[in-house]
Design goal:
The protein has about 400 residues and is an alpha/beta fold. The chain has one domain: Alpha-Beta Barrel (TIM Barrel). It contains 11 helices and 13 strands. It has a 9-stranded mixed sheet, with helices on one face. Strands 1-2 form a two-stranded parallel ribbon. Strands 7-8 form a two-stranded antiparallel sheet. Strand 4 and strand 5 form a beta hairpin. It is elongated. The protein binds S-adenosyl-L-homocysteine and iron/sulfur cluster (SF4). Iron/sulfur cluster binds next to loops. The site of iron/sulfur cluster has 11 residues, from loops.
C-alpha cells in the first residue's frame, strides 16, 4: 500500500476544460440542519445563499458582495471557520457563526489501493453511508461521486441495484464529496499559488451510487457550484454525468448543467437490455437513441460516451459489436468498454480479455474510439458497481430483483 499515486493509463474521461455555461441559477430553499439549527452554506446556490444572508439580517445592498466574499473563502480557499474570513467585519463573522455552518459529510474510513486509488466511506445526515472514489492518473485524477443512497433501479449486474433507495443526496452532500477529497489530497490553493497549481481532482464523474437524473435538482445545483469560476472552478467538460437512460431528463443535463453525458447502454437488443438495465422496459433502445440524436450539445468535440459492461456470453459477441455500431450510427460517440466488476453473489462473469479486445476492435474499425477501462482499485473493492453502503440491511431480495428485471 502506498500513499503515492502511481502512473496509469489515460483516464476514461478527460475532456479539456472550458468556461462554465451561462444558465439561470435556480433557487434552493436553505434547509436548517436539524442537529444545530444552523444553515449549511455548502450546497447553497449563490441565489440561495444571498436569500439566507438577507434573512439573517444582512442589508440587501450588501448581500451580493458578501456572497462573493464567503463563496471565495469556502470554495476557493477551502476555509471552514468563519473567524478566518478576514475581509469580513468581526460582527458579521460572529453573525455567520451563529446562524450558519460549513459542514461536509464525515469521512468514516479511507482505503488506499496499491495503484493509488482512494476509496472514502462517508457518513451523511441520518447515519447513511455512501462511497466516493478517487482514481489518480499521471498527477491528475477523476473523482467518482454518488448522487443517491442506493438506487430505485435494479440493473442486474450492478451491486447498487441490489440496494433499495434510501434517499436522494442533497446538493451539499454532493459538493461535500468533492470538498472532502480535496481536503484529503491537500489540494486547496495556498496563498500565492494559482488554482491550477495542484489539480489533483481534475475530473468528476457522477458514476457512484444512484441515478443522477432521478435527483436532478440537487445534482444540477452541486455541479454548478463545482463549476463556478470563483470557487472550485472545474470546467463543464471535465464533468461527466452517467445515466441508465432516464429519457425525459436527458436534454436537461445539457441545457441546465452543460456537462458531458455518458449512457449506460450495455446491450444491443431490447430483450437483453430489458434484463440488464430494466429502465429499458420504460424507454427502449430506439427511444433512447432518438433522444440522444436530439441532444442539445452533440458535436464531434462533445461526443456522448456509451458505457458497455462486458459480460461473458451475455452481450459480448461479435454480432453484438456489429449491432452496436449500427445502432449508434450518426451519433458522435465513444464507446467505453468496462470489464465487469464481479461482486459477491453477482449473477454474471467478466468477459475474457481476448473477447473484450475482439469486441473493441470491431467498434474501433467502425470509426469509434473504444477504450477498455482499466480496472482500478480492485484490492479495495473500489470499482463501479461494487460500492457498498451501510444500507445493506435495506437489501432487495433476490426474488424482488428478478421480478423487477423480468428474469
Ligand atoms: N446510475 C447511473 C450512474 C451510476 S453507475 C448509471 O447507471 O449510469 C456508473 C456506471 O457503472 C454505469 O455505467 C454502470 O452501468 C456501471 N456499473 C455498475 N455496476 C457495474 C459492475 N459491476 N461492473 C462494471 N460496471 C458497472
Ligand atoms: Fe442504479 Fe446505475 Fe446501478 Fe442501474 S447501474 S442500478 S441505474 S446505479
Amino acid at each position: 500500500m502506498t500513499d503515492r499515486p502511481t502512473a496509469a493509463p489515460a483516464p476514461a474521461f478527460n475532456a479539456p476544460a472550458s468556461a462554465a455555461p451561462v444558465t439561470p441559477d435556480v433557487l434552493t430553499v436553505p434547509r436548517k440542519l436539524p442537529e444545530t439549527g444552523r444553515i449549511n452554506i455548502v450546497g447553497l446556490t449563490r441565489e440561495a445563499l444571498r436569500a439566507a444572508l438577507i434573512e439573517a439580517g444582512t442589508p440587501e445592498k450588501q448581500a451580493k458582495m458578501r456572497v462573493g466574499q464567503i463563496w471565495q473563502w469556502v470554495y476557493y480557499w477551502g476555509v471552514r471557520d468563519f473567524a478566518a474570513m478576514t475581509n469580513l467585519a468581526k460582527d458579521f463573522r460572529a453573525l455567520l457563526a451563529e446562524r450558519f455552518e460549513i459542514a461536509l459529510p464525515q469521512v468514516v474510513t479511507r482505503k488506499i489501493s496499491a495503484d493509488g486509488t482512494r476509496k472514502y466511506l462517508v457518513r451523511i445526515a441520518g447515519g447513511h453511508e455512501v462511497e466516493v472514489v478517487y482514481i489518480p492518473e499521471d498527477g491528475r485524477g477523476t473523482l467518482c461521486v454518488s448522487s443517491q443512497v442506493g438506487c430505485t433501479l435494479t440493473c442486474s449486474f450492478c451491486h447498487t441495484g441490489t440496494q433499495k433507495l434510501v434517499r436522494n443526496l442533497t446538493a451539499g452532500e454532493i459538493v461535500g464529496q468533492v470538498m472532502l477529497a480535496r481536503d484529503d489530497l491537500n489540494e486547496w490553493p495556498q496563498p500565492g499559488e494559482g488554482a491550477e497549481a495542484g489539480r489533483l481532482v481534475s475530473n468528476i464523474v457522477l458514476m457512484g451510487m444512484g441515478e443522477p437524473l432521478y435527483n436532478f435538482d440537487a445534482v444540477r445545483d452541486a455541479m454548478k457550484i463545482v463549476m463556478d469560476g470563483e470557487g472550485i472552478a472545474l470546467g463543464r467538460r471535465r464533468i461527466t454525468l452517467s445515466t441508465s437512460g432516464v429519457v425525459p431528463e436527458i436534454a436537461r443535463a445539457a441545457t441546465e448543467i452543460g456537462c458531458q453525458l455518458a449512457i449506460s447502454f450495455h446491450a444491443t437488443t431490447d430483450a437483453v437490455r430489458d434484463v440488464l438495465v430494466p429502465i429499458n422496459k420504460r424507454w427502449n433502445i430506439q427511444t433512447l437513441l432518438d433522444t440522444l440524436r436530439d441532444y442539445p450539445r452533440l458535436s464531434n468535440s462533445e461526443r456522448i460516451t456509451f458505457e458497455y459492461v462486458m459480460l461473458k456470453g451475455v452481450n459480448d459477441s461479435d454480432a453484438d459489436a456489429r449491432r452496436l455500431v449500427k445502432l449508434i450510427a450518426g451519433i458522435p460517440a465513444k464507446i467505453n468498454l468496462i470489464p465487469f466488476n464481479e461482486w459477491p453473489g453477482s449473477p454474471y462473469q467478466r468477459s475474457d480479455w481476448e473477447r473484450i479486445e475482439a469486441f473493441a476492435d470491431i467498434v474501433y474499425k467502425a470509426g469509434y474510439a473504444s477504450p477498455i477501462r482499466t480496472p482500478r482499485g480492485e484490492d479495495i473493492m473500489a470499482a463501479c458497481g461494487q460500492l457498498k453502503s451501510a444500507t445493506e440491511r435495506a437489501r432487495k431480495s433476490r426474488a424482488e430483483i428478478a421480478a423487477e428485471a423480468g428474469l
